[in-house]
Amino acid sequence: MLNSAKPTPGVISAEPEPIKLDWPATALLIIDMQRDFMEPGGFGETLGNDVSQLARAVKPIGALLKAARDTGMLVIHTREGHLPDLSDAPPAKVERGAPSLRIGDPGPMGRILIRGEAGHDIIPELYPLDSEVVIDKPGKGAFYATELTDVLEKYGIENLLVCGVTTEVCVNTTVREANDRGYRCVVISDGCASYFPEFHEMGLKMIKAQGGIFGWVADSAAVLEAMKVSTT
Ligand code: TIU
């Protein structure tokens, strides 16, 4: 109905405009919900950040993860990190800035941002099931130097519900990569977080500006509402 605040069944109330997704062609993409970013003693904190800023995204992502599992939606988790010999870590990334510990240095959760270490693992609240896809990525974007394109093609995915951390870094980079590859991205506003609240706000604005130049933005409640109607 025109001018109605009530969402149309099955349509996500999103900005800059509502969007209806073909659910079997849609995946939930959870970016880098790792201890290294979320907990004290990890990579995020070594960079000087207040990691408590990211906790707010956990519950909304948990609700979406449950809905995806209940409805059989493809779930993809990503983890940023490097091989123990750092052969996939560019010196420009390792050497930059003045962190308290650099990538590869020993920290309280093992070596910082190294695959297989405790800090590199996904937080227990959102831990992947064996049946779910886990993509290990060396960069900010989930497409760069990973098998993500092959996975999406294999499952016939055209749309991505994107959440995770941090909004303006790995989430934005991945959404931009996905947009250039033709995927529709709906970014979950309360399912993303940044160490800098103002970057979170601007990161979401950049996605939905100019008629949705990179994608759509919706909150988890709007997506859950649309999923409930469309998948039952
Ligand atoms: N530092 C920061 O905000 N983010 C990252 O380094 N990686 C991700 O966003 N995952």
Automatic annotation (TrEMBL):
Pfam families: Isochorismatase. InterPro entries: Isochorismatase-like_dom, Isochorismatase-like_hydrls, Isochorismatase-like_sf. It comes from the Bacteria. SUPFAM superfamilies: Isochorismatase-like hydrolases (SSF52499). Residues 26-218 form the Isochorismatase-like domain. The keyword Protease does not apply. One of its GO terms (molecular function) is hydrolase activity. Keywords: Hydrolase. PANTHER family: FAMILY HYDROLASE, PUTATIVE (AFU_ORTHOLOGUE AFUA_2G08700)-RELATED, PEROXYUREIDOACRYLATE/UREIDOACRYLATE AMIDOHYDROLASE-RELATED. This is Nicotinamidase-related amidase. It comes from Bradyrhizobium sacchari.
